Amino acid sequence: MPANNEATGKVALIGAGRMGLALAAGWLCARRGGLDSDTLVIVEPNRSDELAELAGKHGIKVLPTLTKSAAAGLDRVVLAVKPQALPALGEELGGKLPRNALIISILAGAGLIGLGRLFPGHPIIRAMPNTPGSIGKGITVAISNIEADPPHFRAAADALLKVLGSVEWVEDERMMDAVTAVSGSGPAYVFLMCEALARAGEAEGLPAELAEKLAVATIAGAGALLEDGHKRKTADAAALRRAVTSPGGTTQAALDVMMAGGGLPMLVRNAVAAAERQSRKLGSAL
Ligand SMILES: NC(=O)C1=CN([C@@H]2O[C@H](COP(=O)(O)OP(=O)(O)OC[C@H]3O[C@@H](n4cnc5c(N)ncnc54)[C@H](O)[C@@H]3O)[C@@H](O)[C@H]2O)C=CC1
Ligand SMILES: O=C(O)[C@@H]1CCC=N1
């Protein structure tokens, strides 16, 4: 791969499900991505309508499996299959990839050592994005193996991952399972909260459509306010929560219920611990 010129080489995306499609859509967006039909190949055995539409619009080749000719000249290979599919994928790709091709894995649990066994000698980056990345509002945390230490590898990965939003780098791989549990899975916790808030509104007599509208607007608005307070360093989540909570008021009544006996903080603590354990378990099975 040419040093300091991260966007010139050929990229293969292996697996175009939810996350793979979000990545590909970002790369093919002229303003953000910089890849085109000459530089991107997608490997996906199950063509969804979304994939067919995206590939058709940009003239991207979609292959059911990576051929030797498509692998020639690749400098970055992004793995976006389920962790359970990784061992078979290692065998499928083994020997086909150019020796110095950078492997970028977004698989939950899959550690650098295990990936290194499947792709020996390759520079490898383990990354954990999240679904808000599909609208450029995600956050990805990444770590590289020793072979990918030279800065141009990180720059090459950054260029691909940044289409999803911001990218943070860590040096201690043990953090990746916690990252997966917090920001990788985290959107689901917020969506569950939204579902629960809408259902509670309905239970209090609101029409379903209005309850859902209120729940969505409240979560989206609170998120935007939180992000603004964080960026401008004016208010954190606790300060914003206190600003809603009048003494003896309605919010206090609700928060008393949410905090009773450890309440929501303890539930979230236990939930994140379960996700972190599951990430390690997925990794140890590889
Ligand atoms: N969905 C999420 O919120 C996040 C998922 N991840 C990770 O991203 C990876 C993909 O997740 P999703 O996109 O949600 O899954 P998905 O199931 O939507 O997509 C996986 C795709 O891989 C394809 N596939 C399977 N075997 C293949 C092979 N040998 N070659 C090429 N393609 C193959 C499947 O047909 C499928 O379309 C997982 O490892 C997950 O841990 C990471 C961060 C967030
Ligand atoms: O649930 C999962 O395993 C994946 C990883 C993070 C979000 N989804």
TrEMBL record:
Q: Which family does it belong to?
A: Belongs to the pyrroline-5-carboxylate reductase family.
Q: So what does this thing catalyse? A: L-proline + NAD(+) = (S)-1-pyrroline-5-carboxylate + NADH + 2 H(+); L-proline + NADP(+) = (S)-1-pyrroline-5-carboxylate + NADPH + 2 H(+)
Q: Which SUPFAM superfamilies match?
A: 6-phosphogluconate dehydrogenase C-terminal domain-like, NAD(P)-binding Rossmann-fold domains
Cell location? Cytoplasm
Q: Which UniProt keywords apply?
A: Amino-acid biosynthesis, Cytoplasm, NADP, Oxidoreductase, Proline biosynthesis
* Species annotation: Glycocaulis albus
E.C. number(s) listed in UniProt:
1.5.1.2
Q: What does this protein do?
A: Catalyzes the reduction of 1-pyrroline-5-carboxylate (PCA) to L-proline.
Residue stretches making up the Pyrroline-5-carboxylate reductase dimerisation domain: 173-282
Name of the featured protein: Pyrroline-5-carboxylate reductase
Pfam families, sorted: F420_oxidored, P5CR_dimer
Q: Which domain of life is it from?
A: Bacteria
InterPro entries found in the cross-reference section: 6-PGluconate_DH-like_C_sf (IPR008927), NAD(P)-bd_dom_sf (IPR036291), P5C_Rdtase_cat_N (IPR028939), P5CR_dimer (IPR029036), Pyrroline-COOH_reductase (IPR000304)
Pathway stated in the Swiss-Prot or TrEMBL entry: Amino-acid biosynthesis; L-proline biosynthesis; L-proline from L-glutamate 5-semialdehyde: step 1/1
Domain Pyrroline-5-carboxylate reductase catalytic N-terminal positions: 10-109
In terms of HAMAP family, this protein maps to: P5C_reductase
